[in-house]
Amino acid sequence: MDSQRTSSSQRGAVRAPASQPGGAKLAQIAREAGVSLSTASKVLNNRPGVSDATRKRIEQLLEKNGYRRRRRTEQTTTDIVELLLDDLDTPWSEEILSGVLAGLRKPYVPVVSARTGDNWSIGVWLEEVLARRSAGVIIPLFEFPKEAEERLARSGIPAVLVDPTGDVPQNVPTVGSNDYAGVREATEYLIAQGHTRIAFIGGPTYLQTAAARLDGFRGAMRQAGLTVDPALVSSGEFRYDDGKKHACELLSMPNPPTAIFAAGDMQAAGVYAAAWERGLRIPDDLSVVGFDDLPTSRLLLPPLTTVHHAVREMAQFGAATLMQILEGSAGGMPTHLELTTSLVIRESVRKLP
Q1: 7-16, 83-92, 121-130, 156-165: which range is least confident on average?
Q2: Buried b (16+ CB within 10 A) or exposed e, 242-277
């Protein structure tokens, strides 16, 4: 994930529209009306997607507090829904896009952006969203900065977070999953198969999702009375090359693990490659478990035992939630939905004698 450069931040600085006395005051009006900041901003900017009764209540509060609302002729909303991805060429991104397409309804169409390139920043991307006059945004696997949340809300553009990686904003709907429970269940399965020397290849330490998966692994080991060897725990990116690199290091140890838990299926594919290069057979010589249940996990030889993360379902629910907001059928306050995970047992784990 690219860091935000000073020049880009300046270009994407947050500016309140002239028609508003201030974002903080609008948030107070939203609380008084019992709605989200995004809903209050929709009424302020004469955007659709708000019931008549709610719109009337907010309009009265806006008038009371001296807000000047846009005229109906000033509406500038298009039917574009923004989808912001970390990458465009991964199976995970393909699952997200498929889910979003399944959840959107006509006339809305997605515009896909990727967080790539040295010049990318959240501020510059927001400028592009506003220039395209987008109806709403869907943001998967990204920590949503407060300034971005406030800016979209002031512009009346609703956002939905899918599989959020940081603290969940109270004013933004989210769709996630229980990463902790999923990893814990899979680790318990490995232990039940007789494995005690288990390695864990995790994700970026700054992501809450990665921290939850590591906590699930440690929790299962601790519950079984097993010690987690720090030498068997590593962190990196949820990518093939990263999984292969860490697996090479683990398999080169004098006392290598009998099983490796990769916190992402693409990392697990990298583990397969590292094992193959050393002439090791899965699961005879090494057991492997992944996380996500991407379509590629079924194509590995042998097929990968993994945690079903419901990536496509989360994206579909996220898009459907945005549809409810845009069509005015959502409730006043944002929802925070958490999907359950499940262990998918295939052929990559061996039961030790």
Answers
A1: 7-16
A2: bbbbbbbebbeeeebbbbbbbbbbbbbbbbbebbee
d(CA 220, CA 150): 39
SS3 271: helix
Residue 40 · residue 157 · CB < 8 Å: no
d(CA 34, CA 311): 31
Give CATH superfamily name and number for 23-64: lambda repressor-like DNA-binding domains (1.10.260.40)
pLDDT digits (tens, 9 = 90+) for 206-223: 888 899 999 999 999 999
The span from the CA of 129 to the CA of 76, in Å, is: 12
Under 8 Å between Cβ of 306 and 290: yes
Domain positions in the chain are 6-15+77-177+312-338, 23-64, 179-310
**Beta carbons of 251 and 192 less than 8 angstroms apart:** no
For residues 4 and 147, what is the distance between their CA atoms, to the nearest angstrom?
A: 13
Answer whether 0.70 is exceeded by the pTM: yes
3-class secondary-structure state, position 332:
coil
Strands, E assignment, 163-227: 174-177, 198-202
| CATH of range 6-15+77-177+312-338; options 3.30.450.180, 3.40.50.2300, 3.40.50.1010, 3.40.50.2000 | 3.40.50.2300
- Say if CB 228 and CB 221 are below 8 A apart: yes
The pair of structure tokens assigned to 275 is 């094992």
pLDDT at 334 (0 to 100)? 64
Phi, psi of 200 (to 5 degrees): -130, 120
Q: Are 164 and 143 in contact (CB under 8 A)?
A: yes
Q: How many CB atoms lie within 10 A of CB 146?
A: 11
User: Domain 179-310's class?
Assistant: alpha beta
